[in-house]
Amino acid sequence: MPCPPDQATLRQRLATAGLRATTQRILILESLLQLPGHPTAEQVHRQVVLTEPTVSLGTVYKTLDSFVAVGLTKRVASTEGACRRYDSDCQAHHHLYCTNTKEIIDYSNPELDALIRDFFATHGLDNFQPHSFSLHIAGSRIS
């Protein structure tokens, strides 16, 4: 597990996003940043209750949704259907989904991004101007 970010950094991130730095928000943000991959709200909750057992799963969901609303995190579709996963990396990138392991792998490639931008510049959609994009590619890891 990565080193936890310091409290001042967490407080600053929340303040910059326009959120009050409550104890629960700090714990939830810290857990989201520490957990590997793209955790579910349930995984974040399991981490948070180790420190603060009174935090409910509903509070974790509401807090993560508020983080999404202010751009602190992104919601990521998953191969499990209704399961919501969260990505603390808000930089533009794509996701590869391993259908065997259910793993979500971050993928960045400027050449691919340029191809997509060029495609829409020449083959645009009627009455639609894309501002951002993220590919979700499903497949299997090859050993």
Write up this protein.
- It is a single chain.
- With 143 residues, this protein is α+β, with helices and mostly antiparallel strands.
- The protein has two domains: 7-87, Orthogonal Bundle (Arc Repressor Mutant, subunit A); 94-139, Ferric-uptake regulator, C-terminal dimerisarion domain (Dna Ligase, domain 1, 2-Layer Sandwich).
- It is 40% helix and 17% strand.
- It has five helices and five strands, in the order H-H-H-H-E-E-E-E-H-E.
- It has helices at 7-16, 23-34, 41-48, 57-70, 110-122; strands spanning 74-78, 81-87, 94-98, 104-107, 136-139.
- The strands form two sheets. A three-stranded mixed sheet has the order 4-3-5, with no helix packed on it. It has a two-stranded antiparallel sheet with strand order 1-2.
- Strand 1 and strand 2 (81-87) form a beta hairpin.
- Helix 1 packs across helix 2 and helix 3 (41-48) crosses helix 4.
- The two termini are 25 Å apart.
- The model has no long low-confidence stretch (mean pLDDT 85).
